[in-house]
Structures are given as C-alpha cells and as structure tokens.
C-alpha cells in the first residue's frame, strides 16, 4: 500500500481549474519531487494535501485513510507535516520554544496544570525540553536553543522550520521550495539535512523545488506538473531528460 495516494484531484478558483485530475502514489520511505514551471499548480497541490485548500473533486489517502477535505490540524495529527516557501517561524520565540510548539501532538497537559504549575506540568515541560533539544542536536542547532528565531541566519531558520515540522512526528514531510533564497553553500547543507533526517527517522519526503541540482541530487522519483496537469512521472534521471519536460521549462 502507498503511504500517500492521490486520486483524480482537482480544484477550481472562480471557474479557473488550477489543478486538473492530479494522481500521485508515494511509497513509504520515498524521497519524491514535485516540479514544474512557475504557476504550474505545485503549491496548490501542497495546499490541498495539507488542508489549506479543499479539493473540488478527487481524494487523498494517507496510509489507506481518506483525509480529503479535513482540517489542517487533523491532517497534521494524521501524519502530514509541511514547511512553506516563505519561512513561517515564531520570530519572537526562542529556537527551543519554536520546536516545542511542534510537540503538541505528543506531549499534552490541561490548561489548569499550567496555571497551577502542577507536577504534571513540570514533568511534561521537562520531557518537551529534552525532546526539542534532541531534535535541535540532529539539526546542529543545539547551541542556539536560547536564541530568538529571528536572529538566526537564513539557512538555520529553514533548518529550524524543518525541525519544528519533524516535532509533530509525521509519516510524510512535505517541503515547499526548501532551497528558496539560499546560496550554494546553504543549499548543499540543506541537501545533507534532508538526507540526514531521512536516515535518522526513516521518513517519507515530498518536496517542491526549482533548484534542479538539488532535485537531481536527492530525489529518486519525480512528477512534473504543467498548467495544472501531470506532464510526466517516473525516475528522476528519465524525467529530467524528457524532451517534453525540457520544453515545458525552456520553451520551444
């Protein structure tokens, strides 16, 4: 069974069909890329997968469970975590607290525990601190745990956003243009980070990316979107050498 199975997914905005009859199968453990020219509908697909948009038609199955049209929070609890092209951190919170926000699916206590500072509150906070620091160590950010998120260099902010997503304990991590705005050194570090979290967590990863060096370097399979429809799918090397894919990117 595929971890993620998308069947005939479509969405329209005011009569304009942004994504039309989109199909996708991702196996557990895959590192999969979704690529295409600007405006092809890639982020729209991600927004449907993560519950930001409700599809006009079609279905999304995660581990065999239909999650089509569910709320973003419920989809996250089901096992999908995502990052955004424009980094969305809690800038006025510390690096550690940003990751702790992502632990809400695992570590819970009632509001009165926090108000009364009960033993359960201190126990949960201690466990959350330990888990968040463990994640930061994997990403090489443990030395910045007390730093405000807004003070981190751009590349480290991107790593922190991924660490926070991983804190929700996802089955599928979807990354929306993780290399956007990065210099070549930061992009190389990002490639290492993605490879590391896949190795450490055995997680399935789906990403949108325009950096073809990154795509060719880490993705095993690709789907190419063009004008909201699937142009081709398959192994990365074959897809990137497809004349129709080259034409879609470069024109006639």
Q: Determine the mean pLDDT.
A: 91
Order of strands in the sheet with most strands: 6-7-8-3-9-10
Distance between the termini: 39 Å
Helix content: 25-40%
Number of strands: 10
How would you sum up the global shape?
A: globular
Q: Nearest-angstrom radius of gyration? A: 19 Å
List the helices and strands and how they pair.
Layout: E1 4-13, E2 16-26, E3 31-35, H1 42-49, E4 57-62, E5 65-66, H2 72-78, E6 80-82, H3 95-101, H4 111-116, H5 119-138, H6 154-166, E7 172-176, H7 184-201, E8 204-208, H8 212-218, E9 221-226, E10 229-235, H9 236-240, H10 243-250
How would you characterize the overall build of this protein?
A six-stranded mixed beta sheet has the order 6-7-8-3-9-10, sandwiched between helices. A four-stranded antiparallel beta sheet has the order 2-1-4-5, covered by helices on one side. Helix 3 (95-101) crosses helix 5 (119-138) and helix 3 packs parallel to helix 6. It is 39% helix and 24% strand. The radius of gyration is 19 Å and the shape is globular. The chain is α/β, with parallel strands linked by helices and 252 residues long.
